[in-house]
Amino acid sequence: MKENELNRMKELVSLLNSASRAYYAQDREIMSNFEYDRLYDELTQLEEITGVTMADSPTASVGYEAVEELPKVRHEQPMLSLSKTKSREELRDWLNGREAIMSWKLDGLTVVLHYEGGKLVKAVTRGNGEIGEVVTNNARVFRNIPLSVPFQGELVVRGEAIISYSEFERINSQIEDVEAKYKNPRNLCSGSVRQLNNEVTAARNVNFYAYSLIKAEDADFANSRKAQFDFLSKMGFEVVEHRLVNPDTIMDAIAYFEKKIQTYDVPSDGLVLLYEDIAYGRSLGRTAKFPRDSIAFKWADELRETVLTDMEWSASRTGLINPVAIFEPVELEGTTVSRASVHNISIVRGLKLGIGDHITVYKANMIIPQIAENLTGSDSLKIPETCPVCGLPTEIRQVNDVQSLYCNNPACDAKKIKSFTLFVSRDAMNVEGLSESTLEKFLAAGFLHEFADVFRLSRYEREIADMEGFGAKSCSNLMQSIENARKTTLPRLIYGLGIENIGVANAKVLCRHFRFSLDALRGADMEELSNIDGIGEVIAAGIYEYFRDADRMAQLDHLLSEVDIVRETVDESAQTLAGMSFVITGSLEHYSNRNELKDEIEGKGGRVTGSVTAKTTCLINNDVTSQSSKNKKAKELGVRIISEEEFIAAYLS
Q1: Of 165, 161, 154, nearest to 202 (Cα)?
Q2: Residue 602 burial (CB count, 10 A)
């Protein structure tokens, strides 16, 4: 074996694992699907040539590692990946003269549903294929999931949770900040299904499409996969669209799906073929990673060669400057495209881009324009040394494995515009009539310098009425909208401040934790902030630094003098857990989920944090003998570990 082949394999394993970890576990993208597939195929070929497979090779492992915040369970049957092909002829040959079910390969998050006695009792994500995350409470708010079914035996169904393209676009349209917009429906769905608060899941219209019957106790399907699909439909499941095919009809079926995907609202990255004969499929067994009864077909990307003519650099309120490639227009999948996001500096450099380079472009999943390859590779593109908006110096920062470009000027107009846009948005102060373009006019006119100035715009009522696009009526409506917005809640205000990494959900978490006391939040130290469930050290540092900035605090005080914060009342007589701190881990029996128990503890004045510290009153874990990291930490610090029942008896009775 050549040493350079082994070194290349190690390099590919590292690159692919980093990309997979970012995409599946962290909901971000550091390389395109096209590039991932190309590198994966190169690694597979090298493994075949050398006969060596690394222990951590993506060809020998599946899925992402389950995150700490959700309970974990082991699947009864391992969830394997599928071998894949882009060749239609190879797909037909794979049939071996037999019938098979052809269906969409949906691009969302795989979820397994468990029913007992006709009731949904558990929902688990794919996880790493062996161990998944329990998301039962979130699955209950999927838009189309049956919570009860006629079948009374044990029933296990596998399917895909998805968010449609139209829903994805609706959600993104409500996010003014370019940086905060979701990259694709798959990432949005993954984050939605794996929420700790299912209110977020419910608001995002997640749908579930069943595609595999894993278990139906004592049911007979006459050895037919088609019969299983029909059974699932009768049980109330929305089943993935499918067709029964044979070697004579498979090409027509592929053509049907290929035409439909151009307007299909459900994200899909290919097709799946599954033998109709259940016994025959099972008799084929499996490899270490793939079952032999099914195969995936990925669309051969339609590539077009074009010329890179420009690179736009778009600044956001946090200072992140996003690169967007501009190229000579080409026809792709039936539409004309001339722009593609390049996401960050790492991808720009990986593609070795330069103005005038010949590049190939495609649509990821036949929808989202991407650069596939740079045929020239001039690597001559100059990264802006100054911000395109304010003209002051930029900086390249590396976070984890990704390099991105930032503007360091705190007074950059782009930051101001985006910050004010967020501040007046619907989930923040909800000031109707203040679009980004209107705010830009007001900033240019000198009407706005800090957030409090939004509520002082009546000083310029005459000037605003005389502005192009306004008039007396529009101006009057705006002034009334501003007055209506004065009465608000603390979570809305905290979100509107634009603290880094604090979205709507985290704003609510912070306010609940500090019992809706802004003074308590402003005075919190790093340790307390870091221990809030769902916050962590990185987010905590941003919060802490924000409230230690003298200029920001002066402006916050100005804002507070202009608004009326409606504060939730707390029954002091019921605060029996005041001053106590708890950590909850593992699955629960008396509560439907950890949030329910957390709400009860917080309602009685206690705190629930995500990690065990010396200040923790006790760790609540029904598996008191487990060797989990939280149990080990509690034992090291002498923190008591108690079961759910012991907690109820000791603290709630």
Answers
A1: 161
A2: 17
pLDDT at 1 over 60: no
Question: What tokens does 631 get?
Answer: 């149990």
> H helices then E strands: how many in the chain?
24, 24
Q: Alpha helices of 102-260 — where are they, by DSSP H?
A: 136-139, 165-173, 185-193, 198-203, 225-234, 250-260
Question: Three-state SS for 274?
Answer: strand
The candidate with the shortest Cα–Cα distance to 493, out of 569, 599, 422, is 422
Q: Evaluate whether residue 335 is within a structural domain.
A: yes
Q: Which of 72, 105, 415, 418 is catalytic?
A: 105
**How much of the chain exceeds pLDDT 70, in percent?**
91
Helix (H, G, I), strand (E, B) or coil at 134: strand
* pTM for this model (two decimals): 0.50
- Give Cα 608 distance to the centre of its chain: 24
Residue 525: strand, helix, or coil = coil
In a domain, 65, yes or no: no
Q: How far apart are CA 49 and CA 521, in angstroms?
A: 59
pLDDT in tens, 409-424: 877 777 788 889 899 9
132 lies in the same domain as 204: yes
Q: Are residues 120 and 228 in the same domain?
A: yes
149 and 234 both lie in a single domain: yes
Mark which of 272, 297, 322 sits at the end of a domain: 297
CA distance 467 to 437: 13
* Residue corresponding to tokens 């679009």: 435
Instruction: Tell me what pLDDT residue 412 has.
Output: 79
Query: How far, in whole angstroms, is CA 11 from its chain's centroid?
Result: 27
* Dihedral pair phi/psi, residue 634, rounded to 5°: -60, -40
Tokens of 276: 């109709």
For residues 591 and 540, state if they share a domain.
no
pLDDT tens-digit map of 450-477: 999 999 999 998 889 888 778 888 899 9
DSSP letters of 506-518? HHHHHHHHTTT-H
d(CA 530, CA 611) in angstroms, rounded, equals 9
**Residues 241 and 129 occupy one common structural domain:** yes
Q: Does the annotation mark 604 as catalytic? A: no
CA-CA distance, 334 to 375, in Å (whole number)?
Answer: 24
426, exposed or middle or buried, with CB in 10 Å at 0-12, 13-18, 19+? exposed
CA distance 544 to 117: 50
Instruction: Let me know whether 623 and 582 are in one domain.
Output: yes
Burial of 628: CB neighbours in 10 Å, binned 0-12, 13-18, 19+: middle
- Tokens representing residue 454 in the block: 């939004």
**Final residue belonging to a domain, choices 485, 514, 536:** 485
Give me the pLDDT at residue 178, please: 54
**Strand-pair partners of 141:** none
Domain region containing 189: 72-297
* Burial grade of 551 (CB within 10 A; 0-12, 13-18, 19 or more): exposed
Confidence at 26, pLDDT banded by 50, 70, 90: low
Is the same domain home to 147 and 256?
Answer: yes
pLDDT at res. 381: 94
Structure tokens at 156: 């296990």
Q: Are 319 and 366 contained in the same domain? A: yes
Q: Give the C-alpha separation, 291 to 293, whole Å.
A: 6
